[in-house]
Amino acid sequence: MDLQLRDRVVLVVGGTGLIGSAIAERARQEGAIVRVASRGGAGGLAIDAASEESIADGVAKVMEEFGRLDAVVVSAAPSAQTLDGSRNSDPAQVAAAFDAKALVFLRVANAVIPPMRAAGYGRIVGISGQNAFITGNITGSIRNAALIIAAKNLADELAGTGVTVTTVSPGTVSENPATSVEPGRGGESSPAQIADLVAFLISPLSAVSGESIAIGHRVRGVINF
């Protein structure tokens, strides 16, 4: 299937990580012009997503270079494995994780929405996680759920403008995902599988907006409406 991404300009914030790099590569395979942003600039574009000024500068550079920005994927957040399990309910860790994931997404989205609205077209995708759907890890639940809630609010604000906002929620990410799904857990998915889904969501073929899509089996034994 041709996803019609050829020559589309795609910005992947956090594009040097496990998931982000897979997304960037998948978009390139579809012929997209990809700019990878990371805090240190390892992907070619330096953006500190904790700074609104740095984000604005990065977006401005992309606009100056190409005159357009068709899609943005925000995958910039510390891995869940980096969180201290003994501090899951520690307000300091919760606040830091909330800032590093949900607020990073919101900062980036706010920076790219104006040029997308002006163009009448845009695709914004945030990478959340299935911790949003279950209890047992306050830090993980709050940072992921907040991202999903922010995205849904933005999607509703942008309804009818040609700009869509969606989120993708992996369970455990593995290069070799298991096919079994344990009760109370989400199914595993690979970076490549996540990238395939995101590639569709950032394409002109996708009319999806306001949705939180689980990849891998959505938590077994839990109903979410």
Describe the structure.
The structure is a single chain. The protein has helices at residues 18-29, 52-66, 91-119, 138-157, 191-201, and strands at residues 9-13, 33-38, 44-46, 71-74, 122-127, 163-170, 212-215. The chain has one domain: NAD(P)-binding Rossmann-like Domain (Rossmann fold), CATH 3.40.50.720. The chain has a 7-stranded parallel β-sheet with strand order 3-2-1-4-5-6-7, with helices on both faces. 46% of the residues are buried. The mean pLDDT is 95. With 225 residues, it is an alpha/beta fold. Helix 1 (18-29) crosses helix 5 (191-201), helix 2 (52-66) runs parallel beside helix 3 (91-119) and helix 3 packs parallel to helix 4. Helix 5 links the parallel strand 6 (163-170) and strand 7.
Brief overview:
This protein has helices at residues 18-29, 52-66, 91-119, 138-157, 191-201, and strands at 9-13, 33-38, 44-46, 71-74, 122-127, 163-170, 212-215. It is α/β, with parallel strands linked by helices and 225 residues long.
Strand content is 15-25%
In the CATH hierarchy, what is the architecture at level 2?
A: 3-Layer(aba) Sandwich
Tell me, rounded to a whole number, the average pLDDT.
95
Terminal residue distance = 30 Å
Question: What is the fold's blueprint, element by element?
Answer:
Blueprint: E1 9-13, H1 18-29, E2 33-38, E3 44-46, H2 52-66, E4 71-74, H3 91-119, E5 122-127, H4 138-157, E6 163-170, H5 191-201, E7 212-215
Parallel strand pairs: 1-2, 1-4, 2-3, 4-5, 5-6, 6-7
Helix pairs in contact: 1-5, 2-3, 3-4
Question: What keywords describe this structure?
Answer:
7 strands; 39% helix; globular; 5 helices; 225 residues; alpha/beta
